[in-house]
Input
Amino acid sequence: MNTIDRLISNYSRQVRLPWTANTSGKQRVWLAVYPPDEERRVRARLPEFEALTHKAGHEWSTVDLTPLLPEWIEAHEFREGIFAEPEHFSDKSELEKRVIDRVRQGCSHEDVNETSVVAVTGLASLFDFIRVSALIECVEDSVRGRLLILFPGEYSGSTYRFMDARDGFNYLAVPITSTESFIKP
Output
């Protein structure tokens, strides 16, 4: 079984476990962790995650962050300067706010409820522009059911590393990895 097959298998086990209603926002976040070089394969198999979610009796919704960076740069008043000297660009707070708003909108959509999984894709497109830990902290209070973040990086112990390049962060989210013995049936 390859890495993505194991990740999907572990997700299947996780989504079928009983959900308790009195769980904090931090514990309603699931991070599906996979190697960054598997990003395209995971995205191509997103319909399998959705099908497994429905099979477990839950609703599914997707928030794709991929187009946010190009949309934001295209609308930025200093975009020519950003392209001319990108190393001098440091105003990322507006982009972070857009990302947070997009995820919050996805979590509060009228079709999303306490039994829904909201999947966040496209984090890799925002590498070096946002901190995943900050994003999660800002949106965790908006999570009604479960927030599944497709996380290209690594998980070791209780530390997550985004794109294998940033300092790790500790978080109370439920890790879903491609490790064979991750969840015992």
